[in-house]
Amino acid sequence: MSGQFAIETHTLTKQFGAQTAVNGLDLDVPTGAVFGFLGPNGSGKTTTIRMLLGLAAASSGTAAVLGRPMPRELDAVLPRVGALVEGPAFYPFLSGRDNLLRLDSADPHAPRASRKARVGQALERVGLSPAASKKVKAYSLGMKQRLGLANALLRPRELMVLDEPTNGLDPQGTREVRNLIRSLAAGGTTVFVSSHLLAEVEQICTHAAIMRAGSLVAQGTLAQLRGEGKRTATVLTPDAGAAKSVLARLGLVPDAGIDGEGVADTGFDSTVTAALPADHLVPEAIVAALVADGVRVRGFSVDTGSLEDRFVALTGEGFDVAQ
Amino acid sequence: MPSDPQAADSGSPAPTPTPADSSPQRGTLWPLLASELSVLFRRRRTAAMLATLAAVPVLIAVAVRLTRSTTPGRGPAFLDRITENGLFVVLTALVLCTPLFLPLTVGVTSGDTVAGEAGQGTLRYLLVAPAGRFRLLLVKYVGAAVFAVAATASVIVAGTVAGLLLFPVGQVPLLSGDVVSPWVAEGRILLVGAYVCVSLLGLSAIGLFISTLTDVPVGAMAATVALAIAAQVLDALPQLAWLHPWLFSHYWLGFADLLRQPIEWGSFGSNALLQLGYLAVFGAFAYGRFATKDVLS
């Protein structure tokens, strides 16, 4: 059995000369999770994936995949893992089908009798059947990406490691990949997906980890990650000044708004925002207090920080999160 | 190849994953090798190289046929014999191809083995499959060696056909003066072919090793070909006589000994031993390098 964690690393470190690409990584990917591995470009995501798959040796620290130490038991682990590493790569002069046949024959555990059938099914699953006989050099980036996914799907896998799986895909393709990941997860496969498309991770992942400059800065369930960010209460009212004093009386600190006083003037109505500490009173009590003081409340909301807020807070601005 | 008694029949899906075993399993090497050969020989580049090699004897035969005048003692060995006997086309072509064309094509193929996959990015997918580093390297070397055989065969087949079509074929005088039938002579030509194939084993191993050092296939190919040329240059310097028996190219043209009666096997044996030595040393270097290499391409 693979145990509690599909991927578990302890102080995993990779140095290239003087540069530390991955620094003391303690990653815990629960079995059955859809795990988003986030981080700006160059934060060590792909290097970590390379170490997990035995492509690169760790400078120090340990990694276990499906409960077995890597890279020592690589031959036993990798047949159970499907992977898309740093984009698809194929023989341009071979057809899509022949590329998959080639990669499948490289796996000594892959049953030979079912090879053609499995390749056909994998192509079908990513919608490439009509282009299966075309040479890969005639494929678009999106088609290559699909072929890469088909390669990962050649056999039933316990773990899928997908590095930027939606790179180069059109919106329909992105949607299909999301559905694919959901169906894999529903079938019990652990999915480890690295991405910088945060909206996507928020939609499909149950867990996530955030990398910055080679170090892990946060990991946990999505709710935990969002929850660690602050909650914000927003009041929409024409009586901004009164609302502010009520909030202050309740122990909240209204944010400095556009006008510098936590009050943003939006025509007749203004918005007043204030950070809401986790242990603070329930939101409806705030509304009740406002109304009791005669503040005309025209809108009230409590926003949990989005993953994006959290991500930017942890990794700093300047990263193209909207890409 | 080390055999593994547990080597499960790969035809049935194992309910539990096979236990960790870093050694290649008997019976599971063939699918990868078949795939490697299929990829190698379906490449247009491979076909072009084989066609170029086949063109050498054809060009020789046509040129001799058209001019009909050859000055004895000038040009490559055996050239002046072609008009008397078509079978000499093959031998002339092998003398011409062995120092340059064959090492060139073998250098391209063996230099491309690992570096080509790395440069293309397919190396990481082969290793994640998992092909196993030892298995992959073994298959890559066998692929390069099969190419060397195909390259030599290409010269021999094209040369034999061109010789038969354009020139009379009769009793063949050997270097020792004995005269043998064309069938015996063709047998000797095949022996020469085997000699040439063996000669290329060492260079293939060197190419494989260089190929593990880089992700740029062209660099590995060029370095391998350059080494083949450098070895022959060194072999031509009398000041370095002590070094000559250790150069992998030293016995390359020694196949004339197979054209005597009785056959002198001395150079065949020395050549085979030397080539196996190069294969062992550079094969070990290649594995030593590749087994621990970080695949970052």
Question: What is the chain-wise order of helices and strands of chain B?
Answer: HHHHHHEEHHH
Mean pLDDT of chain B: 87
| Main β sheet profile of chain B | 2 strands, antiparallel
Shape of chain B: globular
The fourth-level CATH homologous superfamily of the largest domain in chain A is P-loop containing nucleotide triphosphate hydrolases
- Compute the CA-based radius of gyration of chain B: 21 Å
- Roughly what is the average pLDDT of chain A, rounded to an integer? 85
Largest interface: pair, residues per side? A-B, 43 and 42 residues
Please trace the helix and strand order of chain A, writing H or E for each element: EEEEHEEHEHHHEHEHEEHEHEEHEH
Helix content of chain B: 55-70%
Number of individual domains of chain A: 2
What percentage of amino acids of chain B are in beta strands? under 5%
Report on the structure:
The complex is a heterodimer of chains A (323) and B (297). Chain A contains 11 helices and 15 strands. The longest helix of chain A is centred in the middle third of the chain and has 16 residues, at 171-186. In chain A, α3 packs across α4 (115-125), α3 (96-105) runs parallel beside α5 (141-152) and α4 packs across α5. Chain A has a 6-stranded mixed sheet, sandwiched between helices. Chain A is of the alpha/beta class and 323 residues long. The radius of gyration of chain A is 24 Å and the shape is elongated. With 297 residues, chain B is mainly alpha-helical. Chain B has one domain (29-291). Chain B has a two-stranded antiparallel ribbon. The chains are: A alpha/beta (323), B mainly alpha (297).
